[in-house]
Structures are given as structure tokens and as C-alpha cells.
């Protein structure tokens, strides 16, 4: 075997991802050495609880609760603890100690990324974070390196495995939200606090990271519009299916150009309707998919495992090999750039299509009233479907397109209206929905979902 220089690697965290990283480092040491041009010595693994159960059979003597001491003298520090503290302090400590850092911690980077990257710049260290967005899928390197010479216009994708797993199982099997979330936790997909997944925080952190790289702009987390999937229920999934859609939690990052040529960006995460024929509709389980549209390259699609211990370990180890090669060869990588610093617009500026579901009085003229309110609000109707949901005696439930339900009695019962709109401005849409809710003919606004993917 080649006589390689030895690099000392410190691992912080041995949970779903960390235990697999340690296992692969130990199992494939010789192969990794050939790729890295250095022997990677796993110097220790810092955890909270020395007696904790591990997903891999790892030498007990490697474990310590003293992360701070482990970091000193390390060439590469892999941070897989998650959360903000003590991860932030330990990452800054690693950088100050002269180590390169590999992390999968999107929460840390989306909130303290500038601090971490500046600290690294000051001492000439590198921070690698391929696993921080979309698990095993290579998306950070393509944005940071491969597309450095292009201009990204739009990124749209599924970037959270847990929520895709939940929505997919609800859609394909009629599974219960809470049951599937528990399974996602067991499978190691979910964050330590799964609220981060189901309320869209994790996807928003990833969207902020992707948008920052794509648009060469610092994107603070509070500039990302975020909605989670906790309001999505079986009825919404069924209604989406009936209309030819599937519900997916999407991250959308867009470069917007005004008539005067000035540019801004929109970064948002929300559950949206995607046509069943769209490639995103076939992203099942905990998989992720990211579409990138760039001015010169055109459309690119990245697909694969978005979560999972061993899958994510692949992305982490790729970064470890890159860090090792740089340590041996020297020089700097392609760094982050915030040159453009584009302003982020609020959600009200976004233009997209919508599906509005209303429960209305089933009376003559109601459809005309609803259409009038939409028209006044500059929201143009593309499709309407009406279903009688509570008919009077003798009136059968029926479905019709753009007609009052046949067979219902004047003044009787309730109907469900599902309205598809043409593209509208979000602010116009939300004001219009408020007017509909207050109109007296609408009993209940059941849901308002954006339609994406066209
Ligand atoms: P886990 O919660 O499974 O593991 C966290 C590990 O960090 C545990 O070993 C824990 O120790 C250790 N740890 C936590 N706090 C401390 C502390 N204060 N001091 C020392 N050790 C500590 O997390 P995951 O492996 O799932 O995730 C790790 C990171 O990877 C997170 O940033 C996550 O967002 C990211 N990620 C996760 C993916 C996944 O599919 N799971 C995919 C992509 C990214 P102990 O075991 O003793 O409690
Ligand atoms: N909890 C995250 C997810 C892990 O489900 O996507 C991968 O980042």
C-alpha cells in the first residue's frame, strides 16, 4: 500500500448519519486513502451518551463526551450533531484550531452560515456541506462549482425526505399522518425534533442554502416564506387526486426580473399541487428531486435519496475526501459569493396558479357571486367543479363543470366548489379569498393551494 500521510479526523455525533460515516470510514479506509491521497485516521467520536445504542458496530474506545479536546489537533472535523448549540461553538473551535469542517447541519448554516464562512475565510479553512441539502444528492457542488459560470434562474424541488415520505404514504396507501411520521422517525429520516420537518423549517433552511449559492446572495432564514404540511389531510389528498394532482412540499427559489431590469429573488416553501404527469409526482418515499434552470445550461434535474443515515453518509464522505485532498495539495476551493446580494421579495409578490376549495350555499346565483368576487380581485378562473355535498330531500349528490348542480332544490344544502385559477399575484389572491370568506355565500374556505410545476 502507498505510504500516505495520515490525516486526523474527528467525528462529532454518531446518530443516524454519524454512525454510518464512522462505519464506512473504518470499513473502506484503504479505498478512501487512495481517493483522498491521505490515510484518514478516525481519531474519535464525540457523543452525549457513551452507552447509547449505535446503528453500527463501532469500537467503544473511539467514543468520548469531550468534543472540545477531540477537535484539537484534528485536520478534518465532521460535525453531525445537528442543531445550533453546541454545534456552532464546536465548528468555530474546529476552524480556529486549523481544521477543515464537513457538516450536514442545515439549521446551523441557514442561521449562522455567514459567521461560519467568515471564520473559515479568515484562517484559510474550508467548510464542506454537501449533505446539508437533499441528503445523498449532489446539489451543493453543482451549484457552487459546476454552475459557477452560469446564471441560475430557478430552483424547484422536493428537499425534505420525511414530508415526502408522509405525503406519499398518505397518497398511495391512505396512511395516517401520525403513524407515518413515527415510521419516518424510526427509519432515521426525521430531525431530532420532527417539527422541523413537518412545519417546513428544514426545507426552508435548505431553500435558504440553495438560494444563497444559486443567486450569490445572503438569504436569511426569515426571508424564506414557509408553510408546513400539518394542515394537509386525507380529504385534501383525495380532492387533489380527483383533480389529477398530487400534493408535495416544494421549495421554490426564483430570480425575478422587473420591467426596469432590476432583479430580486423569491424563496418559499409550501405544500403545492403538482400534476400527476409531472416528474416530481413520481418522487416517492424519502426521495428528493431538485430541478435547476440556468440561463446557459437550461434545465437540469437531480434525483435520489433525500434522507437516511447511510445515504447521507455518502455525501459526507465525498466531502471528507475533498477536504483531505485539499489538505494534502493546498489551495482554496470555489468559495461562496454574495456579490449579487439581491433583495428577497415577500410572498405577496409571487405569481403562480391556485386551486381554491370552498363550501358554499347551494343556491341560484352563488356561482355568479363567487365569479364576480374573483374577477374584481383580478383572479381569472381556469376551471370550476361543483359537487353537492349536502342535498335536500330528493336531491341527489352530483358533480358538474361550471354549472349549478343539477337535481338540487332551490335554497337547499351546500355545495363544494373547486376553482382552478390562471396565474395570479399572491396578494390579489389572498385578498380575494378574504372577500370570498366574508361574502355571505361562502360557508367555509376549505383550502387554498398553489399549483406548481408547469
Ligand atoms: P441524530 O439525532 O440521529 O444524532 C445526533 C448525534 O449527535 C448523536 O450521536 C448525539 O449523541 C450527538 N450529539 C447531540 N448533541 C450532542 C452534544 N451536545 N454533544 C455531543 N454529542 C451530541 O442526528 P442525525 O444523524 O439524523 O443528523 C445529524 C445531522 O445530519 C443533522 O444536522 C441533520 O440535520 C443532518 N442530516 C440528517 C439526515 C438524516 O437523514 N438523518 C440527512 C441529511 C442531513 P448521542 O447519540 O449520545 O445522543
Ligand atoms: N430530516 C431531513 C429530511 C433529513 O427528512 O429530509 C435530510 O436532510
TrEMBL record:
Catalytic residue positions: 206
Catalytic activity: L-homoserine + NADP(+) = L-aspartate 4-semialdehyde + NADPH + H(+); L-homoserine + NAD(+) = L-aspartate 4-semialdehyde + NADH + H(+)
Any one Gene Ontology BP term: threonine biosynthetic process
Keyword Repeat: no
Stated role: Catalyzes the conversion of L-aspartate-beta-semialdehyde (L-Asa) to L-homoserine (L-Hse), the third step in the biosynthesis of threonine and methionine from aspartate.
PROSITE patterns documented for this protein: ACT, HOMOSER_DHGENASE
Name by which UniProt lists this protein: Homoserine dehydrogenase
Family annotation (SUPFAM superfamilies): ACT-like (SSF55021), Glyceraldehyde-3-phosphate dehydrogenase-like, C-terminal domain (SSF55347), NAD(P)-binding Rossmann-fold domains (SSF51735)
Cofactor(s) listed in the protein's UniProt record: a metal cation
Amino acid at each position: 500500500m502507498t505510504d500516505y500521510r495520515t490525516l486526523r479526523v474527528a467525528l462529532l455525533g454518531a446518530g443516524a448519519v454519524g454512525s454510518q460515516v464512522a462505519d464506512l470510514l473504518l470499513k473502506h479506509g484503504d479505498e478512501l486513502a487512495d481517493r483522498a491521497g491521505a490515510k484518514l485516521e478516525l481519531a474519535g467520536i464525540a457523543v452525549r451518551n457513551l452507552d447509547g445504542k449505535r446503528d453500527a458496530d463501532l469500537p467503544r474506545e473511539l467514543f468520548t463526551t469531550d468534543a472540545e479536546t477531540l477537535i484539537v489537533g484534528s485536520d478534518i472535523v465532521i460535525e453531525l450533531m445537528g442543531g445550533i448549540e453546541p454545534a456552532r461553538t464546536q465548528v468555530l473551535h474546529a476552524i480556529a484550531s486549523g481544521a477543515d469542517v464537513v457538516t450536514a447541519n442545515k439549521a446551523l448554516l441557514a442561521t449562522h452560515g455567514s459567521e461560519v464562512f467568515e471564520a473559515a475565510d479568515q484562517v484559510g479553512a474550508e467548510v464542506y456541506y454537501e449533505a446539508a441539502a437533499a441528503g445523498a444528492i449532489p446539489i451543493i457542488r453543482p451549484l457552487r462549482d459546476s454552475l459557477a459560470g452560469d446564471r441560475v434562474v430557478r430552483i424547484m424541488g422536493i428537499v425534505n425526505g420525511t414530508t415526502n415520505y408522509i405525503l406519499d404514504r398518505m397518497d398511495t396507501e391512505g396512511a395516517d399522518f401520525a403513524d407515518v411520521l413515527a415510521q419516518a422517525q424510526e427509519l432515521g429520516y426525521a430531525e431530532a425534533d420532527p417539527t422541523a420537518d413537518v412545519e417546513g423549517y428544514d426545507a426552508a433552511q435548505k431553500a435558504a442554502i440553495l438560494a444563497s449559492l444559486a443567486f450569490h446572495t445572503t438569504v436569511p432564514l426569515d426571508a424564506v416564506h414557509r408553510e408546513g404540511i400539518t394542515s394537509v389531510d386525507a380529504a385534501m389528498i383525495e380532492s387533489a387526486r380527483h383533480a389529477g394532482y398530487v400534493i408535495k412540499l416544494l421549495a421554490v427559489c426564483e430570480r425575478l426580473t422587473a420591467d426596469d431590469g432590476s432583479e430580486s429573488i423569491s424563496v418559499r416553501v409550501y405544500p403545492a399541487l403538482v400534476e400527476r404527469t409531472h416528474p416530481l409526482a413520481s418522487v416517492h418515499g424519502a426521495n428528493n428531486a431538485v430541478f435547476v434552470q440556468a440561463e446557459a445550461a437550461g434545465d437540469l434535474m437531480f434525483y435520489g435519496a433525500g434522507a437516511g443515515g447511510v445515504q447521507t453518509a455518502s455525501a459526507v464522505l465525498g466531502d471528507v475526501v475533498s477536504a483531505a485532498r485539499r489538505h494534502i495539495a493546498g489551495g482554496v476551493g470555489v468559495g461562496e459569493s454574495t456579490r449579487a446580494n439581491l433583495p428577497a421579495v415577500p410572498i405577496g409578490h409571487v405569481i403562480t396558479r391556485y386551486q381554491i376549495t370552498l363550501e358554499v350555499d347551494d343556491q341560484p346565483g352563488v356561482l355568479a357571486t363567487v365569479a364576480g368576487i374573483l374577477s374584481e380581485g383580478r383572479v381569472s378562473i381556469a376551471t370550476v367543479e361543483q359537487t353537492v355535498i349536502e342535498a335536500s330531500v330528493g336531491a341527489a349528490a352530483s358533480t358538474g363543470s361550471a354549472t349549478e348542480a343539477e337535481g338540487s332544490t332551490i335554497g337547499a344544502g351546500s355545495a363544494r366548489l373547486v376553482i382552478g385559477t390562471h396565474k395570479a399575484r399572491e396578494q390579489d389572491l389572498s385578498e380575494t379569498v378574504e372577500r370570498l370568506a366574508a361574502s355571505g355565500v361562502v360557508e367555509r374556505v376549505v383550502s387554498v393551494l398553489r399549483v406548481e410545476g408547469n
